[in-house]
Input
Amino acid sequence: MKSENADIIIIGTGSAFPTASYNACSAVRFGGATWLTDAGGGNGIFAALANAGVDVGEVTHFFVTHSHTDHILGAVWLMRGFINLAIAGQLRHRPTVYANSEAMRSLLTICRLTLLESHYRKLLTIADFRTVDEGSSVNFAGASVDFFNAGSENVAQTGFRMHFPSGKSFVCLGDEALTESNMPHAAGADLVLCGAFCRYADRDIFKPYEKHHYTVKDVAEVASRAAVGTLALYHSEDRTPDRQQSYAAEAAQYFAGRIIIPADGETINL
Ligand SMILES: [Zn+2]
Output
């Protein structure tokens, strides 16, 4: 069987209020197509994509995990990017936009209320909007993508498991942590990308639990039981100066697999 590698590109690593990093979002390049998951909270998505070496025009599939500010407002700017490319005659394909019912309703409503009416109408013709709730499966350049409920405590959040022809699998939980409730969907995955708000050691400073988020230790413990190959953590505070080293050190106490604490723009080869 032909085995082709996938690149998982971490566009932004911050939680909702980062200053030194962009809001958590990521991309997958595989088989000549590019799948973008979330777009952060504003037009900083363009700089964040450029920093990661991703062109707006190469995005063939776009998925919004949930309708919170730091994930969906950048999507409006991405739609503007698609519209501008289409107007310039430079949109070479028809992007597919996926979201659960709630996030899709939010995205289309915000676009309708904030874009020029003619641009909104154009958007509906140049992109293919498809609602994907838990249990849905789609094809991405030969990889199959299964959507599931990420188990968020305060919003309808959808995660996915991407199965590549090589046999490898990538699980993205949006900004959710890996928890007991979503663990079955991530079990045995080669790479899991999920939220870790701060170190357990710093829980009294950043107060993750009252924001429905979890710590590096919490996630690492579940990852160990879920037999995950590589654990990549993002959607974090960005005030800890040695965040990458100190998060990895805490995770390593509870998880024996490979740990990646990415910086914005970093690529993970799968
Ligand atoms: Zn978030």
Observations:
- The mean pLDDT is 96.
- The radius of gyration is 18 Å.
